[in-house]
Amino acid sequence: MSAYLSLLALDGTLVNVGAPAEPLSVNVFSLIGHRRSFAGSMIGGIRETQEMLDFCAEHGIAPEIEVISADRIDEAWERVLASDVRYRFVIDIGTMEA
Length: 98
Fold this sequence. Notes:
By secondary structure, the protein is an alpha/beta fold. The chain has helices at 2-5, 28-32, 46-59, 73-81; strands spanning 13-17, 37-41, 65-69, 88-92.
């Protein structure tokens, strides 16, 4: 977390949305040295989500995904169970049967 916190400007806030798989360790000096904050939320609201999307668009930040066809859902699930997933799966709805 210290590496991420070090990227914040003076009075900046890092918000963790959702629960991490493992406990997080935060070095307090990463916070107090530049009046940084670390906050948490189970979910962002519409306004926050739009701000995040605008920020990502402005800075060229895009998700790393693996697009799969609908007929590969079972295979994708098996890969999730086997921890063989590097990116988030996105199902191409154009391949779904009506």
